[in-house]
Design brief:
Elements lengths: L7 H4 L16 H10 L2 H5 L18 H22 L11 H10 L8 H11 L8 H16 L6 H6 L23 H8 L2 H5 L5 H4 L4 H25 L4 H11 L3 H15 L3 H14 L1 E5 L14 E5 L1 H19 L2 H27 L10 H9 L3 H13 L3 H12 L11
Antiparallel strand pairs: 1-2
Helix pairs in contact: 2-5, 4-5, 4-12, 5-12, 6-17, 12-15, 12-16, 13-14, 14-16, 17-19, 17-20, 18-19
């Protein structure tokens, strides 16, 4: 049975000649999802920081487990909408495989040390195109994974990952939420007409124009990290009764915020916080409903822009409360700020060493990266393009590999032949 929600416009890929599996038993969106799962970039997420440095404890989330949770939540939202919404039915529904692919890939481009690493690389790349985790995900999907050619995604899948559609040159002082300027060609592919998408004001207005699948992925991501960061923060000890009560007094909570915080305290006392937050995952999934969208330049081409996801305002505010708690009690803690410093030191030094070796060549060049990466750098004509390839190399590293490479390059007491892998 064909899902009438999608048409040929949605399943078209950028390079149709590369579609060498015309009789594949899978749908185009299942192929997108499977290609994500089997890429090295996805496997690397198991050793990349979500909140706490990868490997420091054994029970909290990494980028990989977070992505798996987001994918489960995204599929659940799709399945619930199909069963509950009068706008959808068995022959017309949001494809859960497509949403799962978007959820699994949403953090592929994030570098070592989480958002701290992202900030460091963006600071380094200021004036050379910038660095942004979501833009880097787009770069991987379309250019660098699978032998430096990308994975040839379908239009609907590529669009489902486009959380941001503003070019860095339009908001040059922005710390994030942009794509690289040259990636405008992917906007052309996603929308067929770049002038239509560029008519929206740069920044929040344009970035808010998302396909229904991208909206589901976005809410699934918010659900996963706003709830699970609380659990991880409590397990490590950053979030406890004393800190929560002090935080509540400082922030003068009222209404639902006060009730939700009191509930957190109650379940922490009972040592039942994780079951509580597990149940709230279900509440957050149920908070998403699908509604008709206003007519727009895409709604005549695809059903993906005929609808919007509406999130219950009370649940959206609850999610915001948990994010604020995690920000103040976890991310602003001295321990996490120390990780920010480590990210700055390690990734900054790595970039400087590779840049001096391959771009400015202030000394006799050494072979510091793979032969394939050296060839890419050598073939790049502009210094900014060489710098982009170096940030590719660094951003693909796991936390441990970044630290190990840093130590091998600068620590005189580290670097036996057994450390080379």
């Amino acid at each position: 049975m064909t899902n009438q929600f999608y048409n040929d416009f949605d399943i078209t890929s950028r390079n149709e000649e590369e579609n060498d599996r015309p009789n594949d038993y899978r749908s185009p969106f299942q192929i997108d999802r499977d290609r994500i799962i089997y890429t090295p970039s996805f496997r690397r997420l198991q050793s990349k920081t979500q909140v706490f440095l990868s490997g420091e404890y054994d029970f909290y989330r990494t980028r990989l487990t977070h992505s798996l949770e987001v994918a489960q939540i995204g599929r659940s939202i799709c399945n619930r909408l199909k069963r509950r919404s009068t706008l959808l039915n068995e022959e017309y529904f949001v494809d859960p495989d497509l949403v799962e692919a978007a959820c699994l890939s949403h953090d592929l481009g994030h570098p070592p040390f989480g958002h701290a690493g992202e900030r460091v690389l963006h600071s380094i790349m200021q004036g050379q195109g910038g660095f942004e985790g979501n833009a880097q995900t787009l770069r991987q999907l379309t250019e660098t994974i699978y032998g430096q050619r990308g994975m040839n995604p379908t239009r609907a899948f590529l669009d489902s990952t486009l959380k941001y559609k503003t070019l860095l040159s339009e908001i040059p002082e922005a710390p994030n939420h942009f794509i690289y300027d040259y990636q405008i060609k992917h906007l052309v592919f996603a929308f067929e007409d770049k002038n239509q998408i560029l008519q929206f004001d740069a920044g929040k207005v344009r970035n808010a124009f998302k396909s229904v699948e991208c909206q589901i992925m976005d809410w699934a991501d918010d659900t996963a990290y706003s709830l699970n960061d609380i659990v991880d923060g409590a397990n490590v000890g950053f979030i406890n009764l004393q800190n929560l009560e002090s935080w509540a007094e400082t922030n003068n909570l009222k209404g639902n915020d006060a009730e939700n915080l009191n509930q957190l305290c109650k379940f922490i006392r009972k040592k039942r916080l994780e079951p509580l937050m597990g149940r709230k995952v279900g509440d957050f999934i149920a908070a998403a409903s699908i509604i008709n969208s206003e007519d727009n330049f895409m709604s005549s081409k695809t059903a993906r822009y005929k609808y919007q996801i509406h999130v219950n305002p009370d649940i959206a505010q609850e999610s915001k409360l948990y994010k604020n708690i995690s920000l103040d009690l976890v991310f602003k803690s001295p321990q996490l700020q120390q990780l920010d410093h480590k990210a700055s030191r390690v990734l900054g030094e790595l970039f400087n060493i590779l840049s001096e070796n391959y771009i400015t060549k202030t000394r006799k060049p050494l072979r510091l990266v793979s032969a394939e990466s050296e060839k890419l750098i050598a073939n790049a004509e502009e210094d900014s393009a060489k710098a982009r390839i170096i940030t590719d190399i660094i951003s693909e590293m796991t936390d441990k590999l970044a630290v190990r490479t840093y130590r091998r390059l600068v620590d005189p007491n580290f670097g036996s032949i057994l450390d080379l892998v």
